[in-house]
């Protein structure tokens, strides 16, 4: 036994050393004996396929998984194909004369597929064995020499010369063994009677039958044959032939008749009654597969056939008569199973890429597929297909293997993933089909630039905004994803860095300063956006920032200008008629719109029923005659309001002194109205009376002088004076709303478009008398000139004109 083991090891080493490979139809085939230890050398894939050893790991070379055991594997360090699992050829291939192990080798980056085969060589690792340890025969003594008695054959799972070759019977006087050969079935021992038996001499013969194979060294098995010599039942049953052949479809239903056997026996009575039974030579699988009718000899199916498990099987049947000491007769029924298309193709994904970039070239490999059909012939021929509308196609470089290739340009933004249904159909009748769905993800590339929904945006910002506050937000859209859709916003016009800033991630624009509408009405910001792809793609947009006015400037009173601190001094004739224009208040506002629309109101007055004011123009008029009881000093507080929200205002205090019969008080008389004591009243009466008399004398003198000049005197240059004495003396000024203004009146304060200006009658001499009136400049806060620095209005002086040189000059405007 030890010698046999040592020989087996030497045999395996010898086969490993002489392992060869060849290319058959584009495939690489190796040869290796069975029963090699795990790790044993089979071949070198790297050398045979022409790969650099460094490429094996980088391209992830591997043996594709098999539904069976993984018998071989690859060492990526040296490219050696080695035994991964113990290979038992008899278990793997059974009695088949050729045993080939097929597998695929897969590489990635790029994907590749190679088919390899390993032919498993048989070694003599099994000895012939008999189904029983002892065979018992009963032979009638009447049997003549030359009678033949078939014995149960030995079984050797090895093939070729390693299988069963011959039988030997240890020497004896009565029997020899004859080896009967059946093509495609095997060799069967037949015990041949060489000398007539004599039960009375020897009733039992014990023989040793030896079965030998042709291996080196030879293996053998023995069985003890016990021959019982019976008295004569001379004629055994006889079959018409020793071997019957039958073909059956594997789809035959249970109970189908396989064959009906009929043996004959020339004896009469019980010696000629035949019973059919399965011989003990049949395997357990055959006993489970068929059933025999012992009376009729019918053999029927007991279980469904399966071509894929067994393509042929053998039924050993014996016929036994009912006579004393019957001699069984044997026959063989060989059943060939005909394949039917009862197995659908089985599709498996050998390798698949995690994702395919949308710019993958046409012809790029997406996945490797393989299909297997257990049926044979056309029933096992498989064709696979995918739907035509998909941008992919199948290519079959090797039988039953396919490549899934890119057929058209991909666009992730249109379709980000595909569920590809692969349909595989065999060529059987009717054809069988199986389906497998493969999901292919399309990975993004940066092929889309960011875009805005508008080319120009308008951002309205209220002036006096908070520094650092958000004033607008822009959002761009990029149909890509991941880094290709990660956007970064920037301000393109760097000159506005002190005005605005932008959050590069969110696109929110912040104010870097507080805007002043009076200084800046609007400006444009150019915002650029860039994705994070490689290479990055950009876009830009224009934002028109409009500054909205806020009521942040109070009205500024430009007329009358303050002369004595906080009050303005004005005088009026006590005898003025109702509608007399006392003063015109003008103001300006640096704001615009409603924020700059002004209205004038009397806030306080000594006598509210004496004066009124135009809300639009700011003109103050009298609304009744001045009475004696009215105070000689009137105090008006005028408020100017704009129409903003909230409204802002400015005030001016006007002190009005009555002229005429009463003495004009000092400029400081606005502060108090005191009650005069009786003594003080007496002095005032005397003073007023004296003043009135003097004023009356002056008036009479002037009237006479003017009258004389008009009637008797001729001007030095023959030009008459046109001065209207009454108006000149009275100095009466009436409101524009109640009087017809003569055409020789001119506007003194023309700065305010809402104002109604004072008008004075003009007069000129031969040499034009120039009178300077300085109108107030209309400066707002935005002009940068403080109100206190504006030039005060120079009132028109009541300069006397020399009547000797005065000439009439109508419609001469005072500049």
Q: Which features does this protein show?
A:
Immunoglobulin-like; 6 domains; rod-shaped; single chain; mainly beta; about 800 residues; 5-stranded mixed beta sheet; disordered C terminus; about 10% helix; 4-stranded mixed beta sheet; 7 helices; disordered N terminus
What does this protein look like?
The chain is mainly beta and 815 residues long. The chain is 10% helix and 37% strand. The chain is built from seven helices and 50 strands. The strands form 15 sheets. It has a five-stranded mixed beta sheet. Strands 9-15-14-11 form a four-stranded mixed beta sheet, with no helix packed on it. A four-stranded mixed beta sheet has the order 17-24-23-20, with no helix packed on it. Strand 31 (417-426) and strand 32 (433-443) form a beta hairpin. The longest helix is centred in the C-terminal third of the chain and has 35 residues, at 678-712. The protein is rod-shaped. The model is unreliable at 1-26, 662-677 and 712-815 (pLDDT under 50).
Helix and strand arrangement:
Blueprint: H1 2-17, E1 21-24, E2 27-33, E3 41-44, H2 45-49, H3 53-58, E4 62-63, E5 72-75, E6 80-83, H4 89-93, E7 100-107, E8 112-121, E9 134-140, E10 148-150, E11 164-169, E12 175-182, E13 186-193, E14 204-213, E15 220-230, E16 238-239, E17 243-249, E18 257-260, E19 263-264, E20 274-278, H5 284-289, E21 290-292, E22 298-301, E23 312-321, E24 329-338, E25 346-352, E26 355-357, E27 365-372, E28 382-385, E29 392-398, E30 401-406, E31 417-426, E32 433-443, E33 456-462, E34 470-473, E35 487-491, E36 500-502, E37 508-511, E38 522-531, E39 538-548, E40 556-559, E41 567-573, E42 581-584, E43 586-588, E44 598-605, E45 611-613, E46 619-622, E47 633-642, E48 649-659, H6 678-712, H7 725-730, E49 745-747, E50 759-761
Parallel strand pairs: 2-8, 9-15, 17-24, 26-32, 33-39, 41-48
Antiparallel strand pairs: 1-2, 3-6, 4-7, 5-6, 7-8, 10-13, 11-14, 12-13, 14-15, 16-19, 18-22, 20-23, 21-22, 23-24, 25-27, 27-30, 28-31, 29-30, 31-32, 34-37, 35-38, 36-37, 38-39, 40-43, 42-46, 44-47, 45-46, 47-48, 49-50
